[in-house]
Amino acid sequence: MWKKVLPNVLYNIGIFLSLIVGYQYGIVQHHYGYIVSAALIIAIFVYLKIRILKDIRNAQKKP
């Protein structure tokens, strides 16, 4: 179970850091490449996070 909780926490941190970087460097400093890359990273992390949450939910239902 901890093998799935740790990546979930790391995905949350990655999403949060991507939001900060995308805002600070992309919007405030008008470097729009950072916004695109931050959005791509967020999309990947959200996809992986959803997969892990489904695995955890299915693991809890099986006993």
TrEMBL record:
Name used for this protein in its record: Uncharacterized protein
Highest taxon in the source lineage: Bacteria
Record Pfam families: DUF6358
Keywords: Membrane, Transmembrane, Transmembrane helix
Transmembrane spans: 9-26, 32-50
